[in-house]
Design brief:
InterPro entries: DsrEFH-like (IPR027396), Sulphur_relay_DsrE/F-like (IPR003787). This protein has 149 residues and is an alpha/beta fold. 47% of the residues lie in helices and 17% in strands. α4 links the parallel β3 and β4.
Length: 149
Amino acid sequence: MNRRNILWSAVSALGAALGVSSAKATTATAPSNKLKVAYHLSDAEKVHFVLGNIQNHIDGVGGPEHVTIALVIHGPALKAFHSAQANPDVSKRVGDFSQGGIELAACGNTMKAQNVTLSELLPGFINAEKGGVVRLAELQSQGYLYLRP
């Protein structure tokens, strides 16, 4: 083998080694690059639609472990999540989402306006004490993508 071939082989091997190393590093850090999405729900007539969108999102990415989702609810839509008024499909989905790690945030201002406490909502909700829109802004500042279906 002449020197040019030896040099070319060495450079090629080094490039391949760096490529493999880079691929391993990317694979090792991939879970921390999980997509983060904030869904905004305020319209009562869109409750089932938005819950369906979230389920389609989870199914589309291969399960809740592949995406971080927060659902922020305020305004008239919150009534659909009152324990006493929730229909069975909404109750089931909320339970599934809560167990799947989805943040379910209820606007503190809307809760006051509707005279409802956190314990009167379906299980799994947290109180967005500063307000639903404030919680949405906080999530966006943390890198969440904003969706309002």
